Every structure is written in C-alpha cells, then in structure tokens.
Write the structure tokens for this entry.
Amino acid sequence: MENPWWHSGVVYQIYPRSFADADGDGMGDLKGIIRHLDHIAGLGVDVIWLSPIYRSPQDDNGYDISEYQDIDPVFGTLEDFDELLAAVHERGMRLVMDLVVNHSSDEHAWFVESRAGKDSPKRDWYWWRPARAGMEPGTPGAEPNNWGSVFGGSAWEYDPASGEYYLHIFSRKQPDLNWENPEVREAVYAMMNWWLDRGVDGFRMDVIDHISKDTALPDGAVPPGSLYGVGAPHYMNGPRNHEFLHEMHERVFAGRDEMLTVGEMPGVTVEEAIRYTDPARGEVDMVFGFEHVFVDRGPDPWLLYPLQLTKLKAIFGRWQAGLAEVGWNSLYWNNHDQPRVVSRFGDDSPEYRVRSAKMLGAVLHLHRGTPYIYQGEELGMTNAPFATIADFRDIEALGHYAQAVDHEGRSPEDVLTVLRARGRDNARTPMQWDSSPQAGFTTGTPWLAVNPNHTEINAAAAVQDPDSVYHFYRRLIELRHKDPVVVYGDFTMLLPGDEKLYAFTRRHGDAELLVIGNFSGERVRAELADAEAWASAELVLTNAPAPADLELEPWQVVIYRRSA
Ligand code: GLC
C-alpha cells in the first residue's frame, strides 16, 4: 500500500483500569471510556489503543487472559464494547486492541486442559519439561533450566501432579504458549479474525518478539549477584519469529488493508526492525523498540543512571536512519510500563513541568514515525509519591522488591528509590480528570491511589487553559495532519555531541523544519552553521517567548519552518 493512513496518524493509549470508572468500584471500565471520548477526540488523534479488557484474573492487570473472546466483568460486557467501538468510529477514530498471545492466563481453558495430564491433547500447547537430568523434581535447582522470570523468581513452575514444570517468562499465572504447535497458531488467528470481523481496526501485539524460542531451552548466563540466568537471548527474536508473524499476516491481515499492527519487541535491534516492518515481507506495520527507554539503565535494570542526551540522540538517530528507506518507526516516551516522561527526562517541578512536558512532546512528535500518546501524557502527568512498598500494586514492583530485598540482600530503601523512579505504577495512577477528591476518576476507592497533584494537574483545567500541555499536543497533532514534511520529511540529526540540545531538521520537497529542544534548566544557544538564516524563518511552534539568535530558555523547544 502506498502511503498508508497510519503514516500521518497519531495513537492514544488507554489503560482501561486507570482511565475512568463509571460504576464506582474503583476500577476503570468501558462505560467510563465512552464518557470521556470527547477528551481524546478533542486532541485530534486518529486511533485509540486499548490495553487488555478481556476476561482475566488480573494477575498482571489483564495481560493474563483467561478468555480471549469476552470482556472482563470489571470492564463491562461485549455489548458495552460494541457501543464503545461504535462511539469511537462515530468520532472518526479507529480502535486497536491489545493482543497478548505469547502467554495466556493459567486459568485459560487451554491451560487447564494442558495441565490435566501428560497425555492431554493440549499438553503440547504450552512448554512442559521434566526436571533437570539427575535431579529430584520439585527440589531447589531442579528446574529444567536456570532462566529467571521477568517478575522475579524462576521462569518455571513445578506441577506436582505430573512431576513436570511449565515455562512462564512472566508470572506463574502467565504460562507461555507453544507457538511451535500449529494448532496454537490456528487458534490465535481464529480469535484475531473474530475481533476484526467485529469491527476492530488492528492490534498492538504484546511481547511479540518472544513467541519463537530456542526449543533446546538452554541455560542462560548468570550475571554477578543474580540467582538466575538470563533467558532472553534464547526467547527473544527467536529462529521462527519472522516466519510466525508472516504466517499471521497471511492468515489474518491479508485483504484487510486498513488495519494497523504494531509489535511490542523489547529485544529488537534496528536491523531486525527493518525486517519486521518491511512491507514487502508482510509482517507488521511498525514495532515498539526499547533502546531509547533503556537509555538510562545499565546491564542491571534495577540501577539508576542519569540521562545522557548524546546517547539518547544516537539511539533515535540510528532508528531514524535505519528505517528511512524501508519500514516505519513508532515513536513513544510513555506507556503503561514506563515512568512518566516529564519526571524522567524533563523537570516536573512547578516551575518547569508544563514547559518541559511540551518540549518532550514536540521533540518526539517531530520525528519521522507514528507517535503514541499515553493517557495523561497530554496533561503532563508526573510520577507518583510512593511512600512505602505497600503503596505499589504492580506485580513487577512487588516481585522485584521481594527478590531484591529477601534474596539478594539489597537495602529496602535503595530498592524503593529505584521503584519510585522506574516503577510501572507511576504510569498507572488514575487519570486526573478534575480537582475533586478522587480526581473525577471514581466515586469509590481507587485501586491505586490518585496522585495528590491532581488538584493542579487535571483535564478540566488543561482544556480551559489555552497554554496547557493538552492544547500544545493538539497543535502538534494538527501540524502532523496538515504538513507533509512532518510525516515524510528526511531526518538529519544536528549537534550530536551536545549534552543539552536535541536538534534536527526534516526536509521534504522544498519544505524544511528545524526542531531544537533544550533538555536542560539553563539558557543555551544553538551553535548552528546557518543559525542566522533560521532565526528569521517562520517560528511554527514554541513553548516560551520567541528566542533571539537561537538562544533557548530552559526547557524551551522551537520549531522553525522555511521553504527553499
Ligand atoms: C508487556 C506489557 C506488560 C506486561 C508484559 C507481559 O511488556 O506491556 O504490561 O506485563 O508484556 O504481558
């Protein structure tokens, strides 16, 4: 397809549990989303991506699905869903669902049947293995290999009834599906087709670079101080990953040209992303890479490093160049797994929160690719003031805390410091609609505490204020929709060695944009070769008074446009 619609599209992600609660049980729901659709439509976005709303024991907030073709009662019913879908379509937007098929819930009928015994017809739908050779099943160290689970502990759960173990890269309630088995793949494709026939417009595919594993399941290297081996090299971007995605494309998306597919791929490199998103290969439209959100962490994900802007720019620069001719980029700072970007890379103090949130938004949205906005990002929502571990709800945070404190001997205060900065619950505090006691999110008790700063930071105030982050994002989206240079312009990184300024140009036909973002709390002047010419170009958008001679205020961003 030449120039698919999503090249100029912008996606808004809803985390339903934390978006809006219509029935007062403290948990967001579909009716709550329906109530607030005009907030999203008002931004001008093209697509809504819904995090999982399927039936689920909610061990990982819905990323553990026990019935793919139904809605969890916490969120509503299939009728509510159809109403939501129609309401989204009425507003000229599309709806993309989350597809979580690397694993199911252990309460899914498939797994229940698989677990029934070694000769169950669905035994091979999951990864069952005997104990390590020569070891007594169920004893310490007898797991089939040494992989740790992403959420702490071993990646294997022992099943005393059969004396075997099953693999779970995530929680023990998220057993990995065995994609080697063609019946599994057929069942997944049938389910996907069922949703598309119902009218949904595509899928965001959860950890979809994990579906093909090295079937030998070899031990992983054990990092110093760790109890477990790293399995990722053996289950990320595995030998048949491209093959499986191409097959899925053939079975599900061929002939459905208008669909949007984006694969979440924690381990993807640019080189692999080119292959995954090359339209000629028929796999996915774009991927979520992780290199840029791993920029401030080291080999040990649970240590904090400050942002090094030159490193961030090098990563984005490589992805922009790598996907310039073939494939397409996704662009994101935030989602339900990442801390709030204004707290992470900006300055969330009262003085600079709004300005730095706008700068971050502009820098991201002016890259080439499809931008994703995570709920609350358009308000400049911040990380939350978690006091103790009891304030967290996320299985990853709790699992990491237990492992680090109880088994690895790390200090509780150190672990909390990291969780406050990195924990996924930062993104999951309820959406801040207004300044009322529960931020207008619920009339009951929210499942995760509302951020106390909702008295200042909320949608009602932002919509009223023409200078808010909300209206700035609206302008960014408008710019993308009306100016082809934003969508198709070539990307050139400038000042790659500068630790404060993020600068680049985009060029398309005779139009050229210059974007400079100041990632610092100081005034900084951009030393560009043709600074003078640019200083007199049209200033399309900024978040502070127009600069003289490209000397930017703290956290200022400027977007200039000229035509040759
Ligand atoms: C993805 C999801 C994350 C979830 C994990 C397991 O990374 O975004 O929220 O915990 O996969 O499904």
User: Anything to note?
Assistant: Residues 60, 63, 100, 170, 206-207, 264, 336-337 surround alpha-D-glucopyranose (CB under 6 Å). The chain has a mean pLDDT of 97.
